[in-house]
Amino acid sequence: MPFDPKKHRRRSIRLGGYDYSQVGEYFVTLCTHKMRCLFGEVKNGQMYLNRLGQIVESEWRKTAHLRSEVDLGDFVVMPNHLHGLVVITMSREKKTLADPVGRRAHGRAPLRRQSRGLGALIAGFKSATTTRINQHRRTPHSPVWQRNYYEHVIQDEEDSARTRHYILINPMLWQLDRYNNSK
User: Fold this and answer.
1) What is the pTM of this model?
2) The Cα angle at residue 172 between residues 167 and 176, in degrees rounded to 5
3) What is the side-by-side strand order in the sheet with 24-31?
4) What is the pLDDT of the chain when averaged over all its residues?
5) For the domain bounded by 24-174, which CATH number is listed?
6) How many other C-beta atoms can be found within 10 angstroms of the C-beta atom of residue 84?
7) Coil vs helix vs strand at 11
8) N or C: which end of the chain has fewer CB within 10 A?
9) Poorest-confidence range of 4-13, 30-39, 115-124, 170-179?
């Protein structure tokens, strides 16, 4: 079926007019394509990563090293999703736009005017993990992630504490988790 913009409109789940490159704390959830459990399993309330889950964890940790304007807060890789806190510490207006050539080796080739927003961070992360996972599985061009992701702008310290708690206890609540398709 050909693309018809009148029928195939994607609704944005982002806050209209909000600048996702501004300084702030963001909670994100990224889900695997078709909610497949690719990254390991939960046993007795503890998440055990398999090799694919280790790739996801490794690439998530690299994010803060590759993007100097970002700090990572708590995160958890679950069997079919990732929850994480991202803190953008410097607005794009204050950053220089030149990136070291070495970043190309990590699958995150910089553009001349690389976007510094949350969307660009997630896109780079998804691209890097998909490349590495597909190389490991020998499944070129196979989707790993759903197209979109959930985000929540953290409003205050109480919201941040509540979100950190949710991330940390997520493996213990796996049996009740809405993303658990093994129920």
Assistant:
1) 0.79
2) 95
3) 70-77, 81-88, 24-31, 150-153
4) 83
5) 3.30.70.1290
6) 21
7) coil
8) N
9) 4-13
